[in-house]
Specification:
Length: 621
């Protein structure tokens, strides 16, 4: 079995239709070509036995002795048993002075004398508390009474080893562990053992899905926990869809919010037995949630893949950290768990379209002087935001834009309490009208070595158009392909005058109505599918070329007055689409036709404007 660590997206609500899609009714056995013993073993531990065939033993590691304290960098064996058996329940309590201990302490599990662990996950994330301790109770696990507990069955044929790793740099005090173990149990070999994988995208990119897990082999998928935090102050990242791919077959899915049972941010978090939310707080836009497939475990014969999408078109800035839980027989190969410092919950989030310091050209200009060459996506006016990286003991460098009259800003890389490599809050260095393909930053540390910033964000200063007129919707008779909606000619195609009333095929009349974009610039134009139109007006003081930038869901056609500017029959493979247009002096009518099929249609649009001379209005004045 191979588990990959790619970055990509996912979800769905129920699994009855999933089982049917892979050829299994709810009570049907797996296909005969599969190693049925694997599934029989899994069904054995996921079901209540009619007649116990083993002995139940309580194994306790109290708060005294070898497990009472764990020194920095050390490990402690919580459980070591010979098989066969099934760990039916575990409970762990501990105390640590490190504020990041939920991520820096790791749980490791080895079954049947394997060298590589089947479970190697941050302790908090394994128990659904990736951000902070929040009491909750689900059927599989939870946190209560100052301790974590899990009822996920953990079968083993020959041996079981559960280990706690202290990566905090501080002594862990008062570790306590106890477990209920069914010993001498009869298990069909090969035994399908519990596996868990933690995966996080520290650098989410536009149009990048989060890959929860990618498995090769045969087994049962039984659950997901999610710790997500938004970059942009809203929970819009939960509106994306997800994808289950079972044995190479993609399956229908719902939104991330539906999958984990997350409600509106204004409502209290609800933790149900099989899905729910342990934490949802708006200050940091954080969500800790879960979905257990214990009542409907998902069988896979050759492969299983689960991905999560970050909002519509993957354009929401959000960091996802997930744990996938599944059962399958050995052998296996898990990717390495990142080091304790890399696993911490970041206090500072970098925008999804920022440039990371190790991804751009860095040029030495002499002793203590370094230049960063930053590619510019298009001619535009940008605010230059620099994210320093903590480097205790280093000289604070001054950073400036090459060619600017502004003297620049000093970057504090020695803030109190910081650790090497910490990502620090951004510093606004300058604003720049970029007409060429790069912006160059110069860092001067006065003759000392220069710490290159962790990231730089060139934020376009022009905003998304906010005021529009809209009309629709006309039917899309072309079936599931939204592009066919662009083929039909309706009244607004020929006459965009705002005082015109147009008829639908059923005789109903439609008139243009004012539309206000959402906070992020999104215009919901065809919320229930179909074909709709929008228009706004863009002012230019002179005749000039312009680059318009748009993002959309559906199929899109754009005209400037009567001149075609863009036609896209499909949603783009990347978040932003550019179109070159030509503006006349004065007001230019920007016309949008959007077709959607089976889902909502939306768009947003802005104009690249290096010199700040363009502006939008709903009505010319």
């Amino acid at each position: 079995m191979r588990v990959a660590t790619l970055t990509a997206a996912v979800l769905m609500t129920g699994c009855g239709h999933l089982r049917r899609a892979v050829g299994l009714e709810a009570s049907a056995p797996p296909p005969t070509e599969l190693p049925t013993a694997v599934f029989a073993g899994t069904q054995r531990v996921l079901s209540t036995p009619g007649q116990p065939d083993g002995r139940l033993e309580r194994i306790v590691t109290t708060g005294s002795g070898a497990a009472a304290e764990v020194a920095p960098g050390d490990t402690v064996v919580l459980l070591s048993l010979a098989g066969p058996g099934v760990v039916r329940r575990i409970r762990i309590t501990l105390a640590s002075p490190d504020p990041h201990w939920l991520r820096r302490v790791a749980l490791r599990m080895h079954w049947d004398d394997e060298v590589q662990p089947s479970v190697h996950v941050p302790l908090g994330d394994f128990f659904g508390n990736g951000f902070e301790l929040r009491p909750y109770a689900s059927l599989a696990m939870g946190f209560a009474g100052e301790g974590f507990y899990s009822y996920l069955p953990m079968p083993f044929a020959r041996s079981a080893h559960i280990v706690l790793e202290n990566g905090t740099g501080e002594t862990i005090e008062a570790v306590a562990f106890d477990a209920d173990v069914e010993t001498a149990a009869t298990l069909t070999e090969p035994v399908a053992t519990l596996h868990a994988l933690w995966n996080r995208d520290p650098r989410p990119r536009p149009d990048s899905r989060h890959l929860v897990v990618d498995i090769e082999g045969a087994g049962w998928f039984v659950g997901t926990t999610l710790a997500a935090q938004g970059h942009e102050g809203s929970f819009a990242f939960l509106s994306g869809n997800g994808i289950f791919t079972v044995d190479g077959n993609p399956l229908d899915s719902s939104t991330v919010a539906s999958y984990v049972g997350a409600g509106p941010a204004s409502e209290a978090a609800v933790a149900g037995p099989l899905q729910g939310v342990a934490l949802q707080e708006t200050e940091h836009t954080r969500l800790a949630a879960y979905r257990w497939h214990l009542a409907d475990p998902i069988p896979f014969r050759r492969s299983f893949r689960l991905e999560l999408e970050r909002g519509r078109a993957d354009r929401e800035g959000a960091e996802y950290a997930t744990v996938a839980y599944w059962y399958q027989s050995e052998p296996h190969e898990l990717p390495r768990l990142p080091g304790p410092h890399e696993r911490r919950v970041p206090d500072v989030l970098v925008p999804r379209d920022a440039l990371w310091g190790d991804e751009v050209e860095v040029v030495g200009m002499g002793r203590g002087v370094t230049r960063m060459v930053l590619p510019v996506p298009r001619a535009d006016r940008y605010e230059v935001n620099v994210f320093p990286e903590a480097s205790p003991g280093s000289v604070n460098p001054t950073v400036s834009v090459v060619g600017s009259s502004d003297p620049g800003r000093e970057l504090d890389v020695n803030p109190a309490g910081s650790e090497p490599g910490d990502l620090l809050p951004s510093v606004v260095v300058d604003t720049v009208a970029a007409n060429r393909r790069t912006v160059d930053l110069q860092l001067d540390a006065g003759g000392s070595g220069v710490a290159v910033p962790a990231a730089v964000h060139l934020r376009p200063l022009n905003s998304w158009a906010e005021r529009w007129w809209g009309i629709g919707t006309w039917p899309n008779w072309g079936g599931p392909d939204p592009a066919t909606g662009l083929l039909y000619v309706w009244g607004p195609d020929d006459d965009p005058a705002l005082d015109r009333v147009h008829e639908l095929p059923n005789g109903h009349a439609l008139a243009w109505e004012p539309l206000d974009a959402e906070e992020d610039g999104t215009v919901e134009l065809a919320p229930d599918g179909g074909t709709a139109y929008a228009q706004s007006f863009l002012y230019s003081p002179r005749r000039r070329a312009v680059t318009l930038v748009t993002e959309y869901e559906g199929a899109l056609r754009v005209r400037i007055d009567d001149t075609p500017a863009l036609e896209r029959p499909r949603r783009p493979g990347h978040a932003e689409v550019e179109m070159d247009a030509y503006l006349l002096p004065g007001w230019n009518r920007v016309r949008v036709k959007l077709a959607a099929a089976g889902s909502a249609g939306s768009f947003r649009m802005r104009a690249a404007d290096p010199f700040g001379e363009l502006y939008w209005a709903r009505t010319p004045y």
